[in-house]
Amino acid sequence: MLIGHDGDEGEYEDQDDDEDEDEFPDDDEIQDDDEGEDDEGEDDEGYNEIEDESQKRAVVDTSDPPDDEATSTWSSNSQEDHPQDPALDILLRFCYSAITEDYDGGVASSTMLVYFSAVRGLTAPEGDEYLKPHRFTPTLAKLIYCSRLIFLEAVLPRLSHIHGGFAHSPRHGLLRRLNAARREYMCDGTLSPMGEFLSLLSYGDALRRSQGSSFRFCWSDDGEVLSWDGNQRLSMVDFRGLAREVLRSVTASCSRLMYDWEPPHIDLSLIRDNLSTTTPGYSFVSDPTNKLTGAYPELLLRACISPIDGLLRVQGKDHGTWNTKAARAYLEAHDDHLKGLMVLYNLDGGQFARISELLTLECFNTASRERGIGLWGSKMCSITRHHKARLATNNEFYVVRFFSNPVPRLIFQYLVYTRPVAISILRKCFYIEYTDALLFSPLSQIGLKSTPWTVSTFTKELRRHCSATTGIPSGIGVQMYRQISIAITERHVRDAAIRFNRFDDTTGMAGPEVAYAWQSGHRPMQRHITYGLDGAYPDHLQPALLRAYDRVSANWHAFLWGCDKSGEPRSIPVEAEHAELNYESTRHNLTTYRKRPLISDLEETRSNRKRPRSGLGLLFSGSTMSDEVRVQPDSEESVALRAEGEVNSFTCDSMSSPLPGEQNEQAEPTHDDTSPKIGPFVHLAELNLVICLDCKTAVLARQVKTHLVDPLHRQHFTLKERRNISNQILEIPGIIKDADDLQNGKFPSPDAEPIPYLESPLHGGLGCNSCPHIGRDLRRIREHYWRDHTDVLEANNLVDLGRLGQQSHLWRNNVTYQRMFRSGPKSSWFEVGRIRC
């Protein structure tokens, strides 16, 4: 199939699979004429005329065919045994007639198929303009592909189509028969619809190259803000915040699927994975040396006997039955986790992969394909084979993406534990055998109305995370994020800006920087034409190629996370565990910056250590960032980012909304105008905090300058004004300046009125009677008790919390609650507006 666009065919945010529908009439629109004996006689005569005409069109040489053609035969032993379908035969004749229709007066648009292609070139739904070349050439490619299939079936049918006038192919001379018709109807330059399609495809490809990329990005002078479409802006601080939000979400969902169980730590350097092994079913999980195939039953046992959301119903002392509702819920949670993992794969892997590549990744070898997840050099990577350059080079090439250390742990736990457990549930509970090797494939709908994931699935998941992250413009989908990732690589990853020979990617003299073009799915020259990159052809998966991709991925991780040379974000093991997650278990070292909403507020005072001041790396890590992305020390952004580093990114989230299922009936507290205002902030003297009136979240004093860099505020205040606002707030006596001061801060008392400057309070929460913790729903308050108050449960002889509903002596219901910060310490919910008895 010819492809005329360098960009993302079919990967448009609002485009679904409707364009792939059959473009020919349905079977029931064809009228059958075999009613009565007279009609049958007329059909026979018409058939003879059609057959004679088709034989005249195909010039057959009567001489003896060459040996290679004489051996080109198709078996015809059962050609007359297949059932005849008159409607399909006539439909084939109709389609073939459309393909071979002659021009009227030499005008291509006089043919039905060319006219139809012009209609497909109009924009939907109004049709008031034509599609751009990069949008129309995929449509032409589809028409060309379908036309070729119809042509082959009509000229060389394996089985006869009597009602359409196509007899089965002869046993010899097939190539001469094909070429006779091909030269007349299927080549460029012929007066046929196919000739016009090929000409338009070539012209559209040339026109697209002259137009360049579909997006026009603009960078700020300091390189920290990316703009497009006039009013759309994305700061690099917020972009990294998106990655942290996705990592936090995926880690939390992984913990839920693992039932808060942390398996023994596995050193990837000790895991054997032979990338050259092509045996069907092989992967590092199934390698007998690693002994991983028997690791998942322990998780399955925990899932079955868990007192909360357990998969088994206990019947008697030693008997139980499957809880199909809980099993289905686990499979749905598995699919939700897999969607998040799919987004994290793209964010951490570097430049965005095309969804067509992503959805074909396989986790073990099959008879026809090699797996797409492997280990090399103690690192986990994905391997895809890119076919787009085959037209120019007659070769596919490899694209390898390495992951930073938190991500391989999540993928490892999914492949070794979560996925086998989900497949076991399908087999044991629903009696469904699942053997598909696709990595990103839903399991909850198998046996029902199962539909594979598409571009729209990824777009919805990406936009969900974007809406939950501060400063991310709405409407970013697959194609937009792909272009953004390439633009960021061009600007911030230093090696990508080094000039190299864009005409050389096949010789030993080619520099390793060409791997940046390969990673985005282009050859260097193709990348240069589209994105302006100056320009080792990766058609062999060899160590040198893997090292080149490893270097590319390491530079991306240094920009995104602030990773050290080992690929580990520096602050996760210590800072994130104590100061941000506030959780004792070391299993949450994989998680980032945000505290799980299930954690008790009593644990928030456990960390008192001073955080070192650092640069951009503290957005995720806790140390200095790499040289590739270091900001000048005297710039405004460097000062702001150092301030942000001290509190580990307490960014606002003005676009956030309550979670699904949450009772979000909101009160409208009256604003008190007596509190002093400084710029967009208001000072609450009783709490020693300032609150942003626009973002409705508290901000630490030393983070004010970073907060004002947000595009929401930056367009209203000059640099001098932002500095003055920050200095005024820092001079307020007793103001809480950083995370250390915040440890000694206290929430308002439960009977206090809601804070009017924060987001309106929510209702219907459940308050723990043993601590200040607030659970937003019944499941969360149950998990809180199982994790933090086992002594209370033992004292009350409560083993099965599933029997307790909203009304219980362990918690109080209908609690009104707010929260001060969106993330980090003191970001948990606190009770307000309690009615005194």
Major beta sheet summary: 4 strands, antiparallel
Question: By helix and strand content, what is the structural category?
Answer: alpha+beta
Q: Specify the number of helices.
A: 26
**Mean residue pLDDT:** 74
Helix content bin: 25-40%
**β content, as a range?**
5-15%
Radius of gyration: 32 Å
How widely separated are the two ends?
A: 75 Å
What is the overall silhouette? Answer: globular
**Stretches with pLDDT under 50, minimum 5 residues:** 1-80, 496-503, 532-537, 570-672
Physical arrangement of strands within the biggest beta sheet: 9-10-11-12
How many E strands? 16
Region (Disordered): 1-84, 653-674
Biased composition (Polar residues): 653-667
Biased composition (Acidic residues): 8-52
